[in-house]
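Hello,

Our lab assistant flagged a job as stuck in the queue for most of the afternoon. It eventually completed. Since we weren't sure the result was trustworthy after the delay, we are filing this so someone can double-check. Below is the sequence as submitted and the structure that was eventually returned. Let us know if re-running is recommended.
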Amino acid sequence: MIDSNKTEVTGIVGDPLAVLQAIADPVRWAVLDQLADAPRCVCKLQDRISIAGNLLSYHLKVLREAGLITSARRGRWIDYSLADDARERMLAALPGAGALTLDADIHLSLSES
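-- returned structure --
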């Protein structure tokens, strides 16, 4: 029997270039947009993003390898969702983003004082 609670995150998770390349593709951006609303099974993604199934599988693989999405098997179906840190990972991949987050942290700590 297949473990229905197994979550998979693979690939070059710490590579900012892989993240930027993953989100630069319009199809992958559409997948991320769909998953930002709620986790979805691959069949629901296929209904909303009209590309061939093998191409959708390829794009999901790229997003998994970049660490932006996770997958969980549920019987015969696979559910996809945004990784918990996907937004932070995308921001951190931008050049100079470390300074942006540092400035925001400083501003927040100063305004709380």
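-- support follow-up --
The delay was a queue issue, not a problem with the job. The result is valid. The domain at 7-112 is CATH 1.10.10.10 (Arc Repressor Mutant, subunit A). The chain has six helices and four strands.
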